[in-house]
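#lab-general

N.A. 3:47 PM
ok so I finally got the sequence cleaned up, no stray characters, all 431 residues accounted for. can someone with queue access submit it? mine expired

B.Y. 3:52 PM
send it over

N.A. 3:53 PM
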Amino acid sequence: MLKVFMIQPVRIYKRWPMPDDFTGLITGTPTLAFAQLSAQIKDCIFDYVDGTVQDISLKELTRRAQVADVVLINSHSSIGAINTEANVRHILDTCPGKPIIVGGHHATVYDFEWLSRGVHFVVRNEGEETIVELLDAIKKGGPYDHIEGISWRDSNREFHRNPSRAFIKDLDSLAIPNWSIYDKKLYNLPMPIKGYATTAETSRGCSYRCKFCAASEMWGHTQRFKSPERVLEELRVLYKLGFRKIWFGDDNFGADPERYAEIYEGILREGMKFNFMVFIRTDTVAKSPELIKLAYRAGMRVVLMGIESPVDRILANSGKANNVDNARKAVEILRSTGIFVGGFFIVGYLDEKQEETDLTFRAADEMSDYPIISIFEPRLGTNDFTRAEKDFDLPSSDMFYHNTESLFQANFIFWSNIAIFIASIYFIQNK
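B.Y. 4:20 PM
back already:
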């Protein structure tokens, strides 16, 4: 039986891109990817380590990698890429010949770059069907050229990018995620209800075309939904396992209001007591104030919204397909309902003027209970990267990791808000 070692990268560089005591505050749930993959893969023995919340030594990492047949590592973003690479290099040094598979948003965009760093296989986009075929091929020693959705290198170190795999049409067909692989005691979310915290999903993708967004590009500007009954089925499993705090990882939670009304009503009907937090668009909130009240009754306590800018010109330039009036209305609805608002803002967007940047900083304080301010950096695979490349306006780095000049500025902004964040936790817990 194949032994698969799944790794959320161990923090070898503990102060990159920001101190780990800060990331520990905001990383309260595990990635859903490994719960979903381990449920889909049959006849395998799984070992899992979450380096985000576990302090694992390199000696322990080596021991667990050596007894595995295959190592599977998540590369989710440029922020985590340096630690992902450090994990890869360590396993290459201590476990020569061990097949290493990397997947995730970042790996999908930088597939050949990861192969050049020693990875044997990259799983692009969705992994549930791809990983099953890939592990079966690894058991047999190949071949690999027929597996859709992978990039790989052969014994001569030649790189190959197989055709992409079509998105899974029916998300209900997937196995129920195997949340039991996680150590429940390691995770928490700052919400008042007692119980364990984890991650779930109701949909995948986003149909909008924000020019700075890599996630929407990866999903081909589409959004697919699990049925309300399937979502409720998963929530029943979570409830029996003792989970009460849920982070819904959807890129565009709340789309299709009637569908979400069924989910909220089902939670209330079955007496499941949850607190949950979500990513949601401001126009979704602004259009459905009564639905937000229902969501609060069902357990919605924290929302994160991409407000981005208080300047309509910049919103239009970024392809946000939204406006400032919607954002202000959404904030008013959420606050009056009792839901905590985390607002995402971007400064330095392409041709942004200084006075517009100043407005953004002021709006961040006014329009969110916890502002999350990012320095704009175009990401490979986005429309903005193409625009910036055409105008010779790219940062000095290749963005595989993170632009260090902007990173220094971003760290300053993060730490200037740390007091607000801590106060926010107390606000939520005592509300």
